[in-house]
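Appendix B, record 7
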Amino acid sequence: MSAESGLFVIIGVAVGSIIGYFIRRLQASYQAGTAEARMQKLIEEAKSKQKEILLTAKTQAIEITEQAKKTEANFREQIIRVEQRLERKETDLEKKIEDLENKRQKIINKAEEIKTKEEEIDTIRQQQVEKLQKIAGLSLEEAKKVLLDGVEKSVSADMLDLTRKLQNQAHEEAERKAREIVASAIERCSAEVATETTTTYVTIPTEEMKGRIIGKEGRNIKAFEQMMGVEVIVDDTPDTVVISGFNSIRRHVAKLTLEKLIKDGRIHPARIEEAYEKAKKEITADILKAGEEACYELGISNFPQKLVFLIGRLKYRSSYGQNVLKHSIEMAHLAALMAKELGADVLTVKQGALLHDIGKALDQDMEGTHVEIGREIAKKFGLSEKIINAIEAHHEDVAHTSMEAIIVDAADNISGSRPGARKESFEMYIKRLEELENLANSFAGVEKTYAIQAGREVRIFVKPQEIDDWNAMKLAKDVAARIQAELKYPGEIKVAVIREMRAIEYAR
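Structure tokens (predicted):
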């Protein structure tokens, strides 16, 4: 390339640069003008909106001011109305105060008039009393006594009639309701009537077996009695051996042991001990089974196994010839039915009835009454206070503290007094009747006493000149309370006091 060509190139580049510079300046000027125009437009729009906002604010301020003025006017009107109402009430109140003051003054005047009248009446009454004393010849105290005696007799007669009427109504209603509940319970609860005896008999196949039971020089029978803790009576009764013992469970273990020995035929001390161990295990298993069956039958599932075992021991315990376990189950059914009718706790009643004689499971092995032992057993197993009270109150050693305890006591009386439930010896029967008659005869004014209906009723004839109608009713209550506190008896005893007045004259 020549120098001349290079020069042209340099000049061209320089000219292009200058032209580009001017073009960029023109573009920048145009863009700046456009941005300034836009900015001017935005400023104008902002000024326009500012005017609109100011106008709107002024309009709202005017509206708020007008509304405030209206509110103020309404508030002033309300204040004026309240002031007017208060003024009217103040006027009315002043008028009422004035009226009350007038009435108070009238009352004061009336009270003064009444006081004056009372003074006049007292004066007149005193004058009349003095006149009456002169006429009757009685002092004031004597006249009061005569009047009070007459009023007392009249009131006593009215009270006696009213008391007799109310008592009869209450007794009739209570007896009717009680009959319905008890009859319903008895009808719905079927129970066995057969009773058990306390004597245990064992049947033997031949008379020759008696000799084998006795053994050489009485060796077998002595070992048997010593091991079992019972007495074996071998007498002339054909094909029978009697086992006698205070402890009922030992007696049943001895019976089962002897039956095993008779069945096996081999009777000697070693064999007796072996049969005894087997019989004891069988009786123990039977006791637990009996307790479990009783709890299952009554729907009781919260008793521990040791307590269930004690319940099962009642199967081998009897009272007045009545099996205690059967008696307790029967009681539980009766008590549950009555509890449903009366709205009591059915489960508590069932448990209390089943356990009411639980002390009899151990009373042959330890000291104390069955009630005391039963209470301790219940406390040991953490039973509720209602169940403990039902156990210790079923013979009324303590007071009933709940409806459930009363129901258990009633069920015990029903179960024990139904026909065929219990047996009583002739001597005990006569003694019980004599105790009833002697207790009634110990009261003053009693002429004769008769115990009738097997001791279920006591009829007391009183001297009419010594005991009036009111005291006859009191005597019946006192005799019933003494019987309840001092005597032991099944069921209930009716006390009837008879007061008879006879007027006799002869026509000649």
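Remarks on this record: The chain is about 70% helix and 5% strand. The mean pLDDT is 80.
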